[in-house]
């Protein structure tokens, strides 16, 4: 199980891209952190989530 924003999900073995494809996140407006380290957008297809990973997805909201 992988903890994403505090929720345990069965994502082990999937890439960050595969996970994001199942969500409503706009990849252009988010940042992803895995185990305390930023995952660069260029790595989303390569980074495979593992059991006990901790992932945070942060959305950027514009406004003024």
How is the secondary structure organized here?
Layout (H helix, E strand, L loop, with lengths): L1 E3 L2 E3 L6 H5 L9 E5 L2 E3 L14 E6 L5
Parallel strand pairs: 1-5
Antiparallel strand pairs: 1-2, 3-4, 3-5
Structure description:
With 64 residues, this protein is mostly beta strands. 8% of the residues lie in helices and 31% in strands. The chain is built from 1 helix and 5 strands; from the N terminus they run E-E-H-E-E-E. It has one helix spanning 16-20, and strands at 2-4, 7-9, 30-34, 37-39, 54-59. Strands 2-1-5-3-4 form a 5-stranded mixed beta sheet, with no helix packed on it. A hairpin with a 2-residue loop joins strand 3 (30-34) and strand 4 (37-39). The longest helix is centred in the first third of the chain and has 5 residues, at 16-20. The radius of gyration is 11 Å and the shape is globular. The N and C termini lie far apart (38 Å).
Short descriptors:
about 60 residues; mainly beta; 5-stranded mixed beta sheet; about 10% helix; globular
């Amino acid at each position: 199980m992988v903890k994403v924003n505090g929720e345990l999900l069965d994502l082990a073995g999937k890439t960050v891209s595969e996970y994001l494809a199942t969500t409503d996140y706009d990849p252009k407006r988010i940042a992803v952190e895995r185990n305390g380290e930023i995952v660069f957008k260029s790595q989303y297809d390569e980074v495979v989530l593992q059991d006990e990973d901790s992932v945070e997805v942060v959305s950027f909201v514009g406004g003024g």
